Amino acid sequence: MESGRWRWIQQGSKAELGPLAPDETVVRMMATFDEGIYRRIAELLASRPDVRLQTEHGEDLEFLQWFPGLRRFAAQSLRVQSIDGLRHVANTLEHLALGDTLRRLSRRPVGKLGQLRRLGINGSWRDLEAISALVRLERLGVGSVDLDLLRPLTSLRRFESGLGTIRNLDLLPSIGELESIELYRLRGSHDLTSLGEIPRLVRLHLASTRSITSLPSLERCASLRWLVLDTMTGITDLRPVAAAPNLEVLLLIGMRQLDAESLRPLVGHPTLRAGIWGFGSDRRNFAAQDLLPLPPEPFGYAISRRGERVAAEPVPWTQPGWDGIGYEEA
Question: Which residues of 121-143 are buried (b: 16+ CB within 10 A; e: fewer)?
C-alpha cells in the first residue's frame, strides 16, 4: 500500500506550493486553478515521478496539458464530462485511477495510453473494449468485465474486480501471468473452479460475495502463499484450502458461520505459519486458536487466558514484492 503524506492544494494558498518533502507521495488538488497555478504544481512534480497527482474537481482533464512527463494520476470528480485530456500525457502516464462519474463516459481515451502499467477504473463506462489495447498493463482493477476482453493483456499480473459481474470467469487461467486476484461483492452466481487451475497464483482475496458457497481444491496452486476470505458467509468447508501445498498465511475475517472444528483440515499443514480467525466471538476465536495455534493471537495481539493483554510476537504480514491490494492505489 502507498505510504507517505499527502499535499493538499486549495484555492488561494500559496504556502502549499512549496517544495515537496521526501515523504510526500500524493499531491491532491482540491479546486480548479488557472494556468499559472497548474504550472507551479507541475514544477513540484517535475523531479518527483513517484508522486501521484490527484484531482477531485472540474468537468474535464484539459489541465493535463501543463503536466508534461506525468506518470501517476487519479481523477475522482463525479462531475467529469470528458476524459479526452488524457491525450496530453498519453506517452508518459503509467498509473491511472478513474472514479465514478455522473455521466456514463467512453473508455476510448484510456485505450490510447500506450505506457500504462496500472489501471483502476470505477463506475459504469462505455466502450469497454478499449482496455484490450493496453498490452503493457500489469495491474487492473475494474467493476463489471468480460474476461474475453483481457486476453491481449499478456503482462497482467494483478486483477481486482468488485461491485459488478464477471463474464467468462473460466478464462482466468489464460489471462496474462496472474499472481494476485481479488474478487469482492460480485453480483450474480459464479463458479470458482478456474481459480484452482492457476499454478502461478501467489495471493487470493475473496470478499463479501454470498452467492459463492464453495471453493475449488487449491491443490494445483503450488505458488499460493496468501489467502484471505473476508465475509464469505457461504463458505463452510475449508478442505479445499487445506489442499494448497505451500500456503503460509490464512486470514478468515467476518466468517461467523465457521468455528474451531472448521479448521480441523488445516491441522498439521506443513507450511502454514500465520492466521487470523474471525469467527464472531472471543470464545470461538480462542477455541480456534487452541486447535490451530498460529501467530498472532486473536485480533492481532496476545491475550492471556486471564483476559490480560500481553506483548504479541510480531508476524511478518508483508509479502515481499507486494504493495497492497485495491485499484484506488493505482
Answer: bbbebeebebbebbeebbbbbbb
Q: pLDDT under 70 in the chain at which residues?
A: 1-4, 12-15, 297-330
Query: Is this prediction's pTM over 0.70?
Result: yes
Beta bridge partners of 140: 119, 159
Whole-angstrom distance, CA of residue 244 vs CA of residue 227: 10
Beta bridge partners of 9: 29
Are 66 and 44 a contacting pair, CB within 8 Å? Answer: no
The letter for the amino acid at 153 is L
DSSP strand E in the chain: where?
5-9, 24-29, 52-55, 72-75, 95-98, 118-121, 139-142, 145-146, 158-162, 166-167, 180-184, 203-207, 226-230, 249-253, 274-277, 302-303, 309-310
Amino acid identity, residue 45? L
Q: What is the pLDDT of residues 86-107, one digit of tens each?
A: 999 999 999 999 998 888 899 9
1-137 CATH: 3.80.10.10
Peptide bond into 270 cis (omega under 30): no
Closest by Cα among 132, 130, 78 to 104? 78
